[in-house]
Amino acid sequence: MEACENYQKQSYRNRCRIYAAEGVQNLNFPIVHSGGSINIPIREVLVDWSTPWLAKTKRCIDTAYSSSPFFDYYRDSLYALLDTRPETLWDLDMGIIRYFMQKIGLNTKIVCTAEYADEHVDIHPKRPNSILRDLGLERPYWQVFSGKCGFIPNLSVMDLLFNEGPGAIGWLL
Q1: Alpha-carbon span 123 to 117, nearest angstrom
Q2: DSSP character at residue 148
Q3: Which residues sit opposite 56 in a β-bridge?
Q4: How far is it, in rounded angstroms, from Cα 113 to Cα 2?
C-alpha cells in the first residue's frame, strides 16, 4: 500500500461509489484543508469531523442497502468502525480496508511502503477503469437495484459484501 505519496484531490482516498435507488452515488469523507492539500503526505491528511457527514453517510448507506441480503449482518460493525472517528484519512482508509478484507475472508497481508514507489497502479474516479473488463474478469453479481437500473460495476466492495455476504470471496476468486 502506497503510504508515502502526497494526497490526491478527488481520488478514492476519500470517496467511494455505492448503488442507490437513483443509480451511482458518491460518498465523500471530507478532509481538513489547511494551507492547501496538494503537498501533504497521505498519512498527515486530517478527516474533517466538524460537519455531520458521518450521519449523512450512514443514512445514504442505510437507504441504499437496507434491503440487501447481508446488510443487517454487517451494518453495526461497520458503523462501529466509523464511529471511532480516526483522526487521519490514512487511519480511516486502512481501518475500512482491513474491515472489508476481514469480513470477506481475504487473509492478504497489507505491506505499506517505507518510501514513495512510483510503480503502483492508481485507479482514479476521474479516469476510465476497464481493468476487469480488459482481463475478461468483469461479471455481474446480484445488486438490490439491478432490476431497475441493471448491473453497475466498479462500486465499493461494500456493495459486493452487502449483496453477496460470505459468497463475496467466491466472486472475487
Answers
A1: 15
A2: H
A3: none
A4: 5
Angle formed by the axes of helices 157-164 and 53-65, to 10°? 40
Secondary structure letter of residue 87 according to DSSP? S
Question: In b/e form, how buried is each residue of 81-95, taking b as 16+ CB within 10 angstroms?
Answer: ebeeebebbbebbbe
7-41 per-position pLDDT tens digit: 888 777 888 999 999 999 999 999 998 765 567 88
Q: What values do phi and psi take at 127, rounded to 5?
A: -120, 145
89: nearest Cα among 142, 32, 158:
32
H or E stretch including 71? helix 71-82
| Selection from 7, 14, 12, 9 nearest residue 40 by Cα | 7
pTM of the model: 0.88
